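This entry is listed as follows:

___
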Amino acid sequence: MIRVLLVQRLDEKSFREKRRITLSEVSEKTGISRATLTRIANVPGNVTNTDTLNALCKYFECQPGELLAYIEDEEASS
């Protein structure tokens, strides 16, 4: 499964900037709906599109590989 590391990137950016950054702020700055960001943050395996990933990479000033992680599926490992 591909996992979007939104919460981790958000924590890192908040730490770097020494301020609290909310999903509402990310929504406002990226044009991604708050509901979509909440799903990305809270639903494992949530499917998103490249436009959303592009906007998040631009906001966090990162590469897609810094925003995505591959997690082995539980079924495949059993």
